[in-house]
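Structure tokens please, single chain.
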Amino acid sequence: MKPLNKKERNKAFYKVVGLFLISFIIAIILGFTTMNVGRLSEQKMNTELTKLKDHLKFQEEVFAPNVGRTTGLLSKIPTYREEGENLEVLNQDIGAMLSQTKNQIEEDESWESEMYENVIQALSDLQIAYNEQMKLKEQMGSSDEVEQKLQVCITERDRLQNQLNILQAAGGGGGGDADCSQIEKELKQVRQQLNTCNLENKALRQEIERIRNR
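Here you go.
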């Protein structure tokens, strides 16, 4: 192999130096990138750790206590009369507690925030269901009272109709005509009461059916 002349030696030298510089630059870029990736990863981990601590603090100091108090208030709705509670005040306290808790939830797209929202919505739905149940019970009680009044009116109507039939069959006359007029008057009043009871009963049944079908 023939020895290289000066020109060829210089060309080979520059080529080696160029390759060295390119390799050195690539190494620096890789090192810098690796350093930045580590720093970014650390920052991301610190951010997630901070968010986790905030969620745990919120759960411990706000969410869990408020949910516990709300559950306790909800349990009083079905038995508010037995416990001497005011239903309107109970509903106001529950609404205020749920609203206060919801306002303190951090608005983001995390699954924790979605879970908090779902729990609050479930408690709100339970409050509505309890109140509808109480309303239904009261309306069923009213329906039973109307049924009793209706039965009393039917019994009274039948009794007066029988008396009127007996007097008319006897031929009336004298005091009998006065008795017939009085009985007819009372019978008319009873029939009016009976119609009223029927209308009330029908309206109550429709309202109860509407609530049950919700």
